[in-house]
Amino acid sequence: MSSNSSQIDPWTKASGLLILLLAAFVCYDQYYYWSTQEDYSFGFIVPLFVAYVLHERWPIIKNYLLGLGKSKAESKGGLLTSGISFIVALGLIFSFLVMITGGAMRVAQGPANLASLMIAVGFGGAFMGIAYINSGEDATGRHPPLKERLGFTFIFLFPALVWLISAPMVMYLDSDVKLILMEWVSIIVFNVFDFLGLSIVREGNTLMLPKGVVGVADACSGVRSLTGCIFAGSFLAAVFLDKFWKKFLLIATAMLLAFLTNIMRSLFLTGTAYAKGSEALDEKIFTFVGGGITLHDFTGYAVLGVTCILLIMLLPIFNFTIAPPDGDDDEEYPLADPEPES
């Protein structure tokens, strides 16, 4: 059979077009956060990364839909398959209702955290539900078994759910997350300086130093690094890792690295303020036409870059596998008995 994409049935093509339209609406909604919230400016590259993941996986998707895979197994039906299909159908309907409700709120009252969260959640559920439904029969008329259908559906996990990271999920809890992170940062920095015997006084999230005062504000909380690193970890996991537990572990590692590197940044900035005064943090270290970059901002971007590099360096470890021992050549090809001496 030809692998021409035109052989994909019209319903599947229509489903793909529907997903593109829904994704465009998600981008329209989240554009507000990307353009107004510096912590979420990385959202502008999210559509590009989603497109890359789909492009990279397109051969697998196409072969599955056209029935060109190696597997010829047929679904045996059964109660489990029917039950999961029923749950997915209900979930799909619920996801559409959630997204429609969020969209109505967005149109009526403009950008709102709750509306954006509902839109992103509804889109993710609708995307996954549509993928599962379209996996029920390929172009040859074969009904793949449940395991294959679930495997096909999870191919779309990153493109469907990454929109929760690019604004709504963390934004909805933004203030609470920032308060927690700011408190942790201020406590850790204070304890480190106090342990070293340096003069420092902590009042809430404000650190009193001999040459000035350093406040652990929103920008020092590490939310920008946290959200950016969660996205970077999710993308790297989707592209380079195959096992679900590895993907989860890499994302968790990204969150931990984001926190640790932000602590190192806060210690460095506090140390600089301790030695040179707090005004040194706002001095521009790079200047260009129309502005410049302060030490405070530069270290923020550097932390994000370093964390991403560390994640990339960890990929070979996550992909490390112990090669099975070589076959026993002596058993497969035993040495000939030596010829008897004449």
Automatic annotation (TrEMBL):
Record GO terms (molecular function): peptidase activity
Compartment(s) of residence: Cell membrane
Keyword NADP in record: no
Keywords per UniProt: Cell membrane, Hydrolase, Membrane, Protease, Transmembrane, Transmembrane helix
Membrane topology: Multi-pass membrane protein
KW Cell membrane (keyword) present: yes
Transmembrane segment boundaries: 12-28, 40-58, 78-100, 112-133, 153-173, 180-201, 221-241, 248-268, 298-318
Pfam families membership: Exosortase_EpsH
GO cellular-component term (any): plasma membrane
Principal location: membrane
GO BP annotations, alphabetical order: proteolysis
UniProt-recorded name of the protein: Exosortase/archaeosortase family protein
Organism expressing this protein natively: Rubellicoccus peritrichatus
